[in-house]
Design a protein that fits this description.
Blueprint lengths: L2 E5 L2 E3 L5 E8 L7 E7 L6 E6 L6 E3 L7 E6 L4 E6 L8 E8 L6 E2 L3 E5 L2
Parallel strand pairs: 2-11
Antiparallel strand pairs: 1-3, 3-8, 4-5, 4-9, 5-6, 7-8, 9-10, 9-11
């Protein structure tokens, strides 16, 4: 059974940091590109960051502007999102996503990130 379990969300003050984790199981993790998406109330889900299966390439949403870093540890079947200099507009539910061309893709259940003073 495939599982993507996010953790690390919470309440943080503007300018603070959080590290999200997504623990994967039930599929060959290293064969899948992994991404973080987010969805704020009333808005569409948007890409935050992505990383290839081997971790050699990353991409980020324009709004990240050097504040976030995606990484993965294939030995631990886990992908991370380090978020620094958080802003109130970063408040959203953050989702982990696993995809591989030609195969079924999966979403995690999401973790809430709230940036507020």
């Amino acid at each position: 059974q495939v599982q993507l379990v996010e953790s690390g969300g919470g309440l943080v003050q503007p300018g603070g940091s959080l590290r999200l984790s997504c623990a994967a199981s039930g599929f060959i993790f290293s064969m899948y590109a992994m991404s973080w998406y987010r969805q704020a109330p009333g808005k569409e889900r948007e890409l935050v960051a992505g990383i290839t299966g081997a971790g050699g390439r990353t991409n980020y949403g324009d709004f990240v502007k050097g504040r976030f870093t995606i990484s993965r540890d294939n030995a631990k079947n886990t992908v991370y999102l380090q978020m620094n200099s958080l802003k109130p507009e970063d408040t959203a539910v953050y989702y982990c996503y696993a995809d591989r061309s030609g195969y079924r893709n999966w979403w995690g259940q999401g973790t809430q990130v709230t940036v507020s003073s």
